[in-house]
Amino acid sequence: MKNVAFIGVGNMAGAMVTGLSQGVSEISITLFDIDRPKAEAKAKEAKANLAENLQEACTNKDAVILAVKPVHMTALLKEITPFIKQDQLVITVAAGILLEKYQAALPQAHIIRAMPNTSARVLAGVSGLMAGTTATQADKTLTETIFNSFGISLWLEEKDIDALIAVSGSGPAYYYYFTECIAQAGIKLGLNPETAAKLARGTAIGAGKMLEANSESPETLRIQVTSPNGTTAQAIESFEKSLPQAVLAAMTACAKRSKEMSK
Fold first, then answer.
1. 165/55 Cα distance (integer angstroms)
2. Average pLDDT over every residue of 205-210
3. What percent of the chain lies above the pLDDT cut of 70?
Protein backbone atom coordinates (compact mmCIF):
# COMPACT_ATOMS: atom_id res chain seq x y z
CA MET A 1 0.00 0.00 0.00
CA LYS A 2 1.36 3.39 -1.04
CA ASN A 3 0.41 6.56 0.84
CA VAL A 4 -0.25 9.64 -1.28
CA ALA A 5 -1.24 13.07 0.02
CA PHE A 6 -2.88 15.93 -1.86
CA ILE A 7 -2.27 19.46 -0.61
CA GLY A 8 -5.04 21.51 -2.18
CA VAL A 9 -8.35 20.04 -3.29
CA GLY A 10 -9.50 22.34 -6.09
CA ASN A 11 -11.03 21.34 -9.42
CA MET A 12 -7.92 19.65 -10.80
CA ALA A 13 -6.97 17.83 -7.61
CA GLY A 14 -10.61 16.90 -7.05
CA ALA A 15 -10.74 15.27 -10.48
CA MET A 16 -7.51 13.40 -9.77
CA VAL A 17 -8.71 12.20 -6.38
CA THR A 18 -11.98 10.97 -7.86
CA GLY A 19 -10.15 9.07 -10.59
CA LEU A 20 -7.42 7.72 -8.31
CA SER A 21 -9.93 6.47 -5.73
CA GLN A 22 -11.74 4.52 -8.46
CA GLY A 23 -8.72 3.36 -10.42
CA VAL A 24 -6.22 2.04 -7.86
CA SER A 25 -7.11 0.11 -4.71
CA GLU A 26 -3.56 -0.19 -3.38
CA ILE A 27 -3.09 3.56 -2.79
CA SER A 28 -4.20 5.27 0.42
CA ILE A 29 -5.18 8.91 -0.16
CA THR A 30 -4.85 11.76 2.34
CA LEU A 31 -6.26 15.23 1.70
CA PHE A 32 -5.47 18.65 3.13
CA ASP A 33 -6.97 22.00 2.19
CA ILE A 34 -7.33 25.23 4.15
CA ASP A 35 -10.98 25.06 3.10
CA ARG A 36 -11.84 22.28 5.54
CA PRO A 37 -15.44 21.67 4.38
CA LYS A 38 -14.23 21.22 0.80
CA ALA A 39 -11.61 18.68 1.89
CA GLU A 40 -14.15 16.87 4.07
CA ALA A 41 -16.65 16.60 1.23
CA LYS A 42 -14.07 15.21 -1.19
CA ALA A 43 -12.67 12.83 1.45
CA LYS A 44 -16.15 11.45 2.10
CA GLU A 45 -16.79 11.00 -1.62
CA ALA A 46 -13.44 9.31 -2.29
CA LYS A 47 -13.17 7.45 1.04
CA ALA A 48 -9.90 9.31 1.69
CA ASN A 49 -8.21 10.36 4.92
CA LEU A 50 -8.08 13.95 6.18
CA ALA A 51 -4.93 15.63 7.47
CA GLU A 52 -5.30 18.18 10.24
CA ASN A 53 -2.30 20.22 9.14
CA LEU A 54 0.55 20.38 6.62
CA GLN A 55 2.91 18.37 8.80
CA GLU A 56 0.44 15.49 8.98
CA ALA A 57 -0.15 15.73 5.24
CA CYS A 58 3.57 15.35 4.49
CA THR A 59 4.61 12.82 7.13
CA ASN A 60 5.06 9.16 6.13
CA LYS A 61 3.85 9.73 2.59
CA ASP A 62 5.34 8.01 -0.44
CA ALA A 63 4.30 11.00 -2.55
CA VAL A 64 3.06 14.49 -1.75
CA ILE A 65 1.08 16.14 -4.55
CA LEU A 66 1.05 19.93 -4.53
CA ALA A 67 -2.19 21.14 -6.08
CA VAL A 68 -2.66 24.71 -4.88
CA LYS A 69 -3.01 27.67 -7.24
CA PRO A 70 0.32 28.94 -8.63
CA VAL A 71 -0.06 32.25 -6.78
CA HIS A 72 0.01 30.37 -3.46
CA MET A 73 2.82 27.94 -4.30
CA THR A 74 5.78 30.00 -3.06
CA ALA A 75 4.25 30.38 0.39
CA LEU A 76 3.32 26.68 0.51
CA LEU A 77 6.84 25.56 -0.37
CA LYS A 78 8.23 27.59 2.55
CA GLU A 79 5.68 26.06 4.91
CA ILE A 80 6.28 22.44 3.97
CA THR A 81 10.08 22.57 3.74
CA PRO A 82 10.59 21.35 7.35
CA PHE A 83 8.22 18.42 6.82
CA ILE A 84 9.60 17.01 3.55
CA LYS A 85 12.12 14.27 4.23
CA GLN A 86 15.28 13.39 2.33
CA ASP A 87 14.51 11.70 -1.01
CA GLN A 88 10.74 12.10 -0.57
CA LEU A 89 8.76 12.31 -3.82
CA VAL A 90 6.95 15.61 -4.40
CA ILE A 91 4.70 15.98 -7.45
CA THR A 92 3.41 19.36 -8.56
CA VAL A 93 0.42 19.95 -10.81
CA ALA A 94 0.56 23.76 -10.75
CA ALA A 95 0.81 25.54 -14.08
CA GLY A 96 3.47 28.09 -14.88
CA ILE A 97 6.14 27.15 -12.30
CA LEU A 98 9.34 25.49 -13.51
CA LEU A 99 11.00 22.47 -11.94
CA GLU A 100 14.03 24.52 -10.96
CA LYS A 101 11.95 26.56 -8.52
CA TYR A 102 10.75 23.46 -6.69
CA GLN A 103 14.25 21.96 -6.65
CA ALA A 104 15.65 25.18 -5.17
CA ALA A 105 12.93 25.33 -2.50
CA LEU A 106 13.00 21.60 -1.66
CA PRO A 107 16.56 20.41 -2.41
CA GLN A 108 16.04 17.31 -0.26
CA ALA A 109 13.10 16.11 -2.36
CA HIS A 110 12.72 14.30 -5.65
CA ILE A 111 10.53 16.53 -7.83
CA ILE A 112 8.22 15.55 -10.67
CA ARG A 113 6.06 18.05 -12.50
CA ALA A 114 2.76 16.88 -13.98
CA MET A 115 0.16 18.53 -16.16
CA PRO A 116 -3.07 16.50 -16.12
CA ASN A 117 -6.47 17.61 -17.35
CA THR A 118 -9.91 17.49 -15.76
CA SER A 119 -11.02 14.43 -17.74
CA ALA A 120 -9.30 12.54 -14.91
CA ARG A 121 -12.68 12.76 -13.19
CA VAL A 122 -14.11 10.21 -15.64
CA LEU A 123 -10.92 8.10 -15.88
CA ALA A 124 -10.04 9.62 -19.25
CA GLY A 125 -7.36 12.10 -18.25
CA VAL A 126 -4.28 12.92 -20.29
CA SER A 127 -1.19 13.85 -18.26
CA GLY A 128 2.24 15.10 -19.28
CA LEU A 129 5.00 14.14 -16.82
CA MET A 130 8.39 15.82 -16.39
CA ALA A 131 11.08 14.48 -14.09
CA GLY A 132 13.41 16.60 -12.01
CA THR A 133 17.13 15.92 -12.00
CA THR A 134 17.06 13.69 -8.89
CA ALA A 135 13.90 11.71 -9.66
CA THR A 136 14.54 7.96 -9.68
CA GLN A 137 12.99 5.16 -11.70
CA ALA A 138 11.00 4.20 -8.60
CA ASP A 139 9.66 7.77 -8.43
CA LYS A 140 8.66 7.59 -12.08
CA THR A 141 6.97 4.22 -11.63
CA LEU A 142 4.87 5.46 -8.70
CA THR A 143 3.99 8.63 -10.61
CA GLU A 144 2.87 6.56 -13.60
CA THR A 145 0.75 4.38 -11.31
CA ILE A 146 -0.97 7.48 -9.94
CA PHE A 147 -1.60 9.24 -13.24
CA ASN A 148 -2.38 6.14 -15.30
CA SER A 149 -5.10 5.25 -12.79
CA PHE A 150 -7.30 7.96 -14.27
CA GLY A 151 -6.20 7.95 -17.92
CA ILE A 152 -2.93 7.98 -19.82
CA SER A 153 0.37 9.71 -19.21
CA LEU A 154 3.52 10.43 -21.19
CA TRP A 155 6.96 11.65 -20.25
CA LEU A 156 8.36 14.70 -21.98
CA GLU A 157 10.95 17.41 -21.55
CA GLU A 158 9.97 20.54 -19.65
CA LYS A 159 10.79 22.64 -22.70
CA ASP A 160 7.66 21.15 -24.30
CA ILE A 161 5.33 22.11 -21.44
CA ASP A 162 3.76 25.10 -23.21
CA ALA A 163 2.81 22.97 -26.21
CA LEU A 164 1.50 20.25 -23.90
CA ILE A 165 -0.74 22.73 -22.12
CA ALA A 166 -2.01 24.05 -25.45
CA VAL A 167 -2.88 20.54 -26.66
CA SER A 168 -4.10 18.55 -23.66
CA GLY A 169 -3.97 20.74 -20.56
CA SER A 170 -6.46 23.26 -21.92
CA GLY A 171 -7.72 20.95 -24.67
CA PRO A 172 -10.96 19.71 -23.05
CA ALA A 173 -12.30 23.28 -23.04
CA TYR A 174 -11.85 23.48 -26.81
CA TYR A 175 -14.09 20.46 -27.38
CA TYR A 176 -16.70 21.80 -24.95
CA TYR A 177 -16.67 25.14 -26.73
CA PHE A 178 -16.95 23.52 -30.17
CA THR A 179 -19.92 21.51 -28.89
CA GLU A 180 -21.48 24.76 -27.66
CA CYS A 181 -20.97 26.29 -31.09
CA ILE A 182 -22.58 23.31 -32.84
CA ALA A 183 -25.62 23.56 -30.55
CA GLN A 184 -25.91 27.30 -31.17
CA ALA A 185 -25.71 26.74 -34.92
CA GLY A 186 -28.43 24.10 -34.63
CA ILE A 187 -30.68 26.64 -32.92
CA LYS A 188 -30.08 29.16 -35.70
CA LEU A 189 -30.97 26.45 -38.23
CA GLY A 190 -34.36 26.00 -36.56
CA LEU A 191 -33.93 23.45 -33.76
CA ASN A 192 -35.21 24.20 -30.27
CA PRO A 193 -32.42 24.72 -27.70
CA GLU A 194 -32.98 21.44 -25.84
CA THR A 195 -32.93 19.35 -29.01
CA ALA A 196 -29.88 21.16 -30.37
CA ALA A 197 -28.01 20.66 -27.08
CA LYS A 198 -28.82 16.93 -26.94
CA LEU A 199 -27.80 16.38 -30.54
CA ALA A 200 -24.52 18.28 -30.14
CA ARG A 201 -23.61 16.55 -26.88
CA GLY A 202 -24.52 13.09 -28.12
CA THR A 203 -22.55 13.57 -31.31
CA ALA A 204 -19.48 14.69 -29.37
CA ILE A 205 -19.70 11.67 -27.09
CA GLY A 206 -20.13 9.31 -30.02
CA ALA A 207 -17.17 10.77 -31.90
CA GLY A 208 -15.02 10.47 -28.79
CA LYS A 209 -15.97 6.81 -28.38
CA MET A 210 -15.14 6.17 -32.02
CA LEU A 211 -11.68 7.67 -31.49
CA GLU A 212 -11.22 5.48 -28.43
CA ALA A 213 -12.48 2.28 -30.04
CA ASN A 214 -10.66 2.54 -33.37
CA SER A 215 -6.99 2.42 -34.25
CA GLU A 216 -7.59 4.59 -37.30
CA SER A 217 -6.41 8.19 -37.25
CA PRO A 218 -8.91 11.04 -36.85
CA GLU A 219 -8.25 11.84 -40.51
CA THR A 220 -9.23 8.33 -41.58
CA LEU A 221 -12.40 8.40 -39.49
CA ARG A 222 -13.29 11.79 -40.97
CA ILE A 223 -12.80 10.53 -44.52
CA GLN A 224 -14.97 7.47 -43.80
CA VAL A 225 -17.99 9.68 -43.06
CA THR A 226 -17.32 12.26 -45.79
CA SER A 227 -18.93 11.14 -49.02
CA PRO A 228 -17.64 13.01 -52.11
CA ASN A 229 -19.89 15.97 -52.94
CA GLY A 230 -22.17 15.09 -50.01
CA THR A 231 -23.44 17.14 -47.10
CA THR A 232 -20.48 16.42 -44.82
CA ALA A 233 -18.04 17.31 -47.61
CA GLN A 234 -19.69 20.73 -47.91
CA ALA A 235 -19.28 21.33 -44.17
CA ILE A 236 -15.64 20.19 -44.15
CA GLU A 237 -14.86 22.38 -47.14
CA SER A 238 -16.20 25.37 -45.23
CA PHE A 239 -14.22 24.41 -42.10
CA GLU A 240 -11.01 24.09 -44.12
CA LYS A 241 -11.17 27.75 -45.07
CA SER A 242 -10.73 28.99 -41.50
CA LEU A 243 -10.74 26.29 -38.81
CA PRO A 244 -7.07 25.17 -39.06
CA GLN A 245 -5.90 28.78 -38.79
CA ALA A 246 -8.29 29.49 -35.90
CA VAL A 247 -7.13 26.41 -34.00
CA LEU A 248 -3.46 27.28 -34.50
CA ALA A 249 -4.06 30.87 -33.40
CA ALA A 250 -5.92 29.76 -30.28
CA MET A 251 -3.31 27.19 -29.27
CA THR A 252 -0.47 29.62 -29.96
CA ALA A 253 -2.17 32.13 -27.65
CA CYS A 254 -2.52 29.41 -25.01
CA ALA A 255 1.15 28.41 -25.25
CA LYS A 256 2.21 32.06 -25.15
CA ARG A 257 0.22 32.64 -21.95
CA SER A 258 1.74 29.51 -20.42
CA LYS A 259 5.22 30.82 -21.19
CA GLU A 260 4.33 34.21 -19.70
CA MET A 261 3.09 32.58 -16.50
CA SER A 262 6.33 30.65 -16.09
CA LYS A 263 8.23 33.93 -16.08
1. 31
2. 96
3. 100
